[in-house]
Structure formats: C-alpha cells, structure tokens
Design goal:
Elements lengths: L4 H13 L3 H18 L5 H12 L4 H18 L2 H17 L3 H17 L3 H17 L3 H17 L3 H17 L3 H18 L2 H18 L2 H17 L3 H17 L3 H18 L2 H17 L3 H18 L2 H17 L3 H18 L2 H17 L3 H18 L2 H17 L3 H18 L2 H46 L4 H74 L4 H4 L2 H31 L8 E4 H19 L4 E7 L6 E4 L1 H26 L4 E10 L3 E8 L29 H12 L3 E6 L5 E8 L11
Parallel strand pairs: 2-4
Antiparallel strand pairs: 1-3, 4-5, 5-7, 6-7
Helix pairs in contact: 2-3, 3-4, 3-5, 4-5, 5-6, 5-7, 6-7, 7-8, 7-9, 8-9, 9-10, 9-11, 10-11, 11-12, 11-13, 12-13, 12-23, 13-14, 14-15, 15-16, 15-17, 16-17, 17-18, 17-19, 18-19, 19-20, 19-21, 20-21, 21-22, 23-24, 24-26, 24-29, 27-28, 28-29
Length: 782
C-alpha cells in the first residue's frame, strides 16, 4: 500500500502518544527527582511526599528511603501537618510490606500529633490506618471501632473520598465477620462515591471486594460479574498488584464451581504475580489455594507441601487465621488419605484457633470436616453434635452455601442412622438452599460470564495479531519509501521487498491458523458446557434415586417381616404380599439400573478441557489399552482375549491432551469387548475373541484402528451410532454415550475423524484419524 509523508508523521505521533503506563510512571518519578535536586531545606518535604506516593506501590523500599529523608527534615519545617502526613505515608508503606504492627505505631504517632493540633483531617486518616492495620492483625473489634470513628469525622468534614475509603474498610471488616448483607451495603456506598468521582481504580477495587461477599453469600453469578468488571479495569491499567487479588478470587470461585483445573491455573498465575511483587502474605495465600486444589485432584504430597509452606509464612507474619486455615487444610489432606487420627488432630488444632478469632464462616468450615472424620471413625454421637452446631452457626450467618452444606451433612447422618423422616426433612432443606444457589437462571448467567470472559481474551489475542500485521504493513511501506529515495540500489530494494512480502505472507498464515485455533477452542467450550450440564443433571438425579433405592430396600425388609406372620395364610393375604414383593423387587431393580445410568452419565460428562502436552503417542495408547484390558477382566471374568498390537515406531512425540486420547481408546476397546461377549452369548460358546489395535503415520496424519471379531453392527443402526444415548446393546447393558463422546473429542477438539470403516457379521473396525501433531525437534544452534 502507498504511504505519504503525512502518514509517516502520524505513525511517529502515535508512537509517542501510546506510551506504556509504567514508562509514564517512571517519567513522573524522574521529573520529581529533578525537582528534588533543585529544592532546598524544608522545601524538599512536599516533593519527598510526592515521590513516596509514586513509589510505595511499585518500589516500597525506595519509597521508604524518601520518606525517611522527609522525617529528618520535619523539625526544621516546624509544620506538624507535614509531619503527620509523613508518619501516615510511612504507615502505608508498612502495610504494603505486611509490617502491620509497625503500621499501628506510625498511625498512633500521627493520631497523637493530629489531636494536639486539632487537625481533624489527619486524625481521621490516622484512625483509618489504625483500623486497617488492626484488621490485618485480625483484631476485628478494635478495627471496627477505629474505622467507624474515622468515617464519622469524614462525614463531618464532608470529605467524600474519605467516606468512600472508610466505607470500603467497613465493608471488608463485615465481609470477614460473615455479615455479608452489611458488607455489600458499605461497598455500595463506597462504589457510588468513586463512580461519581470518576476514580476507576478505586471503583474496580470495590467491585472486586463485592465479588468476595457475593461468593461467600452464594451468589456466584453476581460474583463473576463483579470480578470480571474489576479485572478488566485493572488489566487495562496494567495494575499487577490489584489484578493479583482478582485473579486469586477467580481461582477460589472456580474451585467452588468444581472446575479445579481452571482454579489451579488462576492460583498459579496469582503465585507468580505475588512473587514478582514480593508479597509474603500473597505468596502464602496462593500456596494455600494451590494446596486445596491439589488435594481435590488427588495430588496429596504436593498439597501437603503447599499447606506447610503457607503455614510457615503465615506464622512469620503473625496471621492466626492463616495458620488455622493451614492446619484445617492439612487435616483435609490426611482425611482424603484415610489417615483419620492425623486428620482429627489437625482439625482440633485449627478449631481452637478459629474459636479464638471468632469468624463464624471459618469455624463452620472446620466443623463440617469434623463431621466427616467422626463418621469415618464411627463416632456418630460426636458427629451429630458437631453437625448441629455447624447448622446453628450457619443459620445465624444467613450464608446459604454454609446452610446447604450443613443440611446435606445432617441428612446423610440421619439416613445412616435409620432416621429416614429426619433425613428427608434435612434433605428438603438442603435442596431449598441448593436451588437458591444453583437455579437455572444463575447457571445461565455464570455460563454467559465465563464465555464472555474467554471470548474477550481470544478477541484480545486476535486484535494483537491484527495490530502486529498492520505494523508489519506500515514498516513495509516505510522501507519502500526509503528504497525509493535510494533508487541507485534498486536491486537491493527489490530483494528487501521480497523478504518483507514473504514475512507478511507468513504473518497472514499465522493469522489464519489462529482463527482456526479459535474455532476449535469454541467447540471445546461447547463440549465442556455440555459436560457440565450433563453432570449437573446426573447429580440432581442421584440424590432422589438414592432415596428410592434406600426406601425400596427398607420396604423389602418390612415385606419379609409381614410375610413371616402366622396369621397371614388365614387371612388369605399371602398372594397379595407376594405380588407386593415382586413389585418391590422390580422397583429396586430398575432403581439400581437408573443409578447405573446416572453414574455412567457422570463418568462420561467429565470435563475434557486441559492443556496439550508432549506425549509418546504409542506409549499413551498402550497405557490406556492395558488399563481398559484390566477393567474388562473385572467385568467379564470368563472373557479370553488375544490382543494384537501393531504400532508404527515412526510416530514419536505428539502434542495432545493425554486423558482425552485415553478416554477414546478405553471407550472403543470396551465396545469391542461387549461385541465379543454378545456374539459368544448368542452362539452359546465361550467368550473368546481377538482385538487388533494399530497405529500408523501417513504423510500428514496419525491413524489409529481398533478391530474386533464380535457380533458386528446391523446396517440399519450404523448411521446412528455416534448419536448421544443411542446404543446397540440390550437394555441395561449400555448408556449410549461412549461413541458420542469419543466422536466429539476426535472431531471437535482435534479436527480429526472417527468412522466405522467395517461392521459386518464377523466384527467391526473403527478408524481414528488425527491431523499430525508430532513434536518437531530442531537441531542445536538453529
């Protein structure tokens, strides 16, 4: 495209206009340092204050050096107002470096100075700093008193910014005390003030904190909305310190939504940000959160290591709640390892500290864990006592999430002890609380928020690539203009043009590849959403089915007792009793079959999202093949298989998600085993069969074939075999999800194909074709 001189001038102007925020901040610091070099005596103090404000976030150590210089100059200035400002600035630096006791001392010094001089504004800020420091030290009662006193003074002074800061602090306090409605009220006041003042940074901070209260209150949809609103503002400002808090909260929320891989990704990102910012309390929090997710994923050694590291850091910081949470989390890891004595020890230690702190939410959390460990240790009396205490505290907090979990645990306790009426009452209360948290509207809002956030990330990636493409075009134009000015070297210019043109073509190819990748990611999101929906339906069906089966079993025992009564034959009721017994047997049989279907749905609905990694393809197939073969032996004891493995050794490493490929292999192998057993059953012969598994690399694809000599698939059914819930098996033998899920994984997630290539009476052959995703190894030095 042709370029004129005005276009080149515009390019230079844009380069100067869009300077990175950190560059602008450094320019401000450089300018202040230049002013400082020219100032003398007490005139240096205001400049030193400005430098402290500019640096206390990105570089608190350097900010401390400047404020110390100011402190040395205060006696000569004879200005107590400047002195009070300096003390409070030093206190804020102590807060940022987790030196909360030191922050209290500076705040008290500033308060004393302000009171002596009747300085209401500095007095209010000193009280606010004392409140924040006591809050971080978990002295909640003192923190509330100081902050409310500060808020009263700000109201008297009509200082809207001060009122917003005090309301935010009061919101944080009530949030930690479990008073979520009060917290949201304070947050709303603070947010409205900042919105009127046009301060996006503080407004986003308040929105993030509102998300925490929403999440604790059980309003997950509103929590996601507030988190993403805050994160969008912070990322636009390149504010790492503030972004890390939102990233942490998103990780916690995804944990509550049982999306553990997503949660771990956010907590790992938070850990890296906290280390870069050198925040010990943030590092401890991130490691603790990682440990909780590791525990859910069954990575117990990593979980213990993370929790112990977090507990050590919390102990160094003097954070009692952090230590208590770490003890609780270590107990939970031991519980999942079935080491109940160790789990009980850590839970008890945690509960002692939590009762001292007095935060009801964290107390209920440990009480729930104690219910579980007492049940496993068959101490039902203690389990009931703890469970009822947990429900009582949860109802006082009005936290629907805690109420739901407490009622669920009591329902299970009543059912296990044979108190079915009480179990049903508790279960209904659990359902009421659960439905208030996970109604269909909330779920749709959550899904919409997640999709919007991921779409925004993808759009930003594409926008960056388009911007890079545009910049390439601009630079090509500039080079062409330069080549015109040096026409004497036309041949050299022509070669340069060809090089740049090839670079642009390469960029176009990368852009097209990114659009294809985006389409595949969208399909993967659809699969994940379908899996979540299926898992949710299966989970909701599971509880009523358990009650059907449990009460059916109870009815069976009662029928047996009635049938044994001596007066039954004389009354002529024995035939009726037998009919009832037969009906009851059918109810139990079909209830158990429905339970099997639900378990299969939950198994196949597991989210298939994850990151691709390098894996030896043949070894991966062989590993899951061995796993499937072991499962088949347990399912069909009389089954005798000959497995012919024919692997192409030239395949090597590939970029895949291993458990997705494994799920496809297991599903197809299980279908082959079922077909062999079906053929043998129909013929009345022993279940003996052959299965061939082969891998092959063609020019641009990897091909996998799984063949069997089973019963085959009737021609009329072949067109529907990949339809969800369609099955060729006898009633009760299959759910009809295996081939459907496998087909979606291969076609949607990898852009490949899965076809039934042969299916006559002598067996069936399924052929999988993956685009070649081998890992290319570059020679050293390239």
């Amino acid at each position: 495209m042709p370029f004129s001189t005005p276009r080149i001038a515009l390019l230079v102007f844009l380069c100067l206009l869009f300077v990175r925020p950190d560059v602008r901040a450094q320019a401000q610091v450089d300018s202040l340092e230049q002013v400082l070099r020219q100032a003398t005596g007490a005139g240096r103090i205001p400049v030193l204050h400005d430098l402290t404000r500019a640096l206390r976030g990105p570089d608190p150590d350097e900010a401390r050096q400047y404020i110390q210089q100011a402190l040395d100059l205060y006696p000569s200035s004879n200005n107590d107002s400047l002195h009070a400002t300096g003390l409070l600035l030093l206190g804020t630096i102590h807060m940022r470096t987790a030196q909360f006791d030191s922050a209290v001392v500076r705040a008290m010094e500033g308060q004393t100075l302000a009171q002596l001089n009747g300085d209401s504004l500095h007095l209010a800020h000193a009280l606010l700093l004392r409140g924040d420091a006591n809050f971080r030290l978990r002295n909640y009662e003192a923190a509330v008193d100081f902050t409310q006193d500060a808020n009263t003074i700000f109201e008297q002074l009509a200082d809207s910014m001060g009122q917003s800061m005090a309301s935010l602090s009061l919101g944080n306090l009530q949030n930690n005390l479990g008073n979520y409605a009060a917290a949201l009220g304070y947050y709303e006041v603070a947010a409205n003030i900042q919105l009127a003042l046009g301060d996006d940074t503080r407004y986003a901070t308040i929105r993030s904190n509102m998300g925490v209260a929403n999440r604790r209150q059980g309003d997950y949809a509103k929590a996601i909305e507030n988190y993403l609103q805050a994160l969008e503002i912070f990322e636009a400002q390149n504010a790492s310190l503030r972004s890390v808090n939102v990233v942490t909260n998103l990780g916690v929320l995804y944990y509550f939504l049982n999306e553990f891989e997503e949660a771990l990704e956010f907590h790992t990102r938070a850990l890296a940000l906290n280390k870069a910012l050198d925040r010990p309390d943030g590092i401890a929090n991130a490691r603790s959160n990682q440990g909780v997710v590791f525990n859910e994923l069954g990575r117990f050694e990593e979980a213990l290591e993370a929790h112990r590291e977090a507990m050590a850091l919390e102990g160094e910081l003097g954070d009692k709640e952090g230590v208590a949470n770490a003890l609780n989390n270590i107990g939970l890891v031991y519980f999942n390892q079935r080491n109940y004595e160790e789990a009980l020890h850590y839970y008890d230690e945690s509960l002692i500290i939590k009762r001292e702190i007095g935060n009801p939410e964290i107390i209920v959390n440990t009480l729930h864990n104690l219910v579980d460990v007492h049940r496993e240790m068959t101490d039902d009396t203690e389990a009931f006592l703890v469970g009822k205490e947990a429900l009582e505290i949860a109802e006082k907090t009005r936290n629907m999430s805690l109420i739901r979990d407490s009622q669920q645990k009591l329902s299970a306790l009543y059912e296990a002890s044979g108190q079915f009426e009480e179990a049903l009452t508790a279960y209904k209360a659990y359902k009421t609380a659960h439905d208030s948290l996970f109604n269909s509207n909330s779920q749709s809002v959550i899904a919409e928020m997640q999709t919007r956030y991921r779409s925004r990330e993808k759009e930003q990636t594409i926008a960056l690539l388009e911007e890079e493409k545009t910049n390439q075009q601009l630079w090509i134009g500039i080079l062409l203009l330069g080549l015109v000015l040096i026409a004497a070297v036309a041949l050299l210019g022509y070669n340069g043009y060809r090089i740049k043109k090839r670079a642009l073509q390469s960029l176009d190819a990368a852009y097209e590849n990114l659009k294809t990748t985006q389409a595949q990611l969208i399909q993967r999101e659809k699969l994940a959403s379908l899996g979540q929906l299926t898992a949710g339906i299966a989970h909701e069906l599971n509880n009523p089915l358990n009650f059907v089966n449990n009460f059916s079993q109870l009815n069976k025992e009662m029928i047996d007792e009635v049938a044994a009564h001596d007066a039954l034959p004389a009354l002529g009721l024995k035939p009726i009793i037998e009919d009832i017994r037969l009906n009851q047997h059918k109810i139990l049989e079909h209830g158990q079959q429905a339970n099997q279907i639900v378990r299969s749905m939950m198994k196949h609905a597991q989210e298939g999202s994850g990151k691709k990694q390098q894996a030896a393809f043949n070894s991966l197939v062989d590993e899951y093949l061995n796993f499937a073969q072991h499962g088949a032996r347990l399912q069909y004891e009389a089954l005798q298989l000959e497995i012919d493995r024919q692997y192409d050794t030239d395949i090597g490493l590939v970029n895949v998600i291993p458990h997705e490929i494994g799920q496809v292999v297991i599903n197809l192998f299980n279908n082959a085993c079922d077909a062999i057993v079906e053929r043998a059953s129909a013929a009345g012969t022993p279940a003996i069969g052959n299965i061939l598994v082969s891998t092959q690399r063609s020019q641009d694809a990897i091909i996998v074939q799984i063949s069997d000599d089973g019963a085959g698939i009737p021609e009329a059914m072949r067109k529907d075999i990949f339809v969800p819930f369609f099955t060729t098996k006898a009633p009760g033998m299959g759910v009809g999800l295996g081939l459907s899920i496998s087909h979606d994984i291969v076609t949607q997630a990898y852009g490949g194909t899965l076809v039934l290539s042969e299916a006559d009476a002598s067996g069936a052959t399924f052929t999988l074709t993956f685009p070649d995703a081998r890992v290319e190894h570059q020679p050293v030095g390239t």
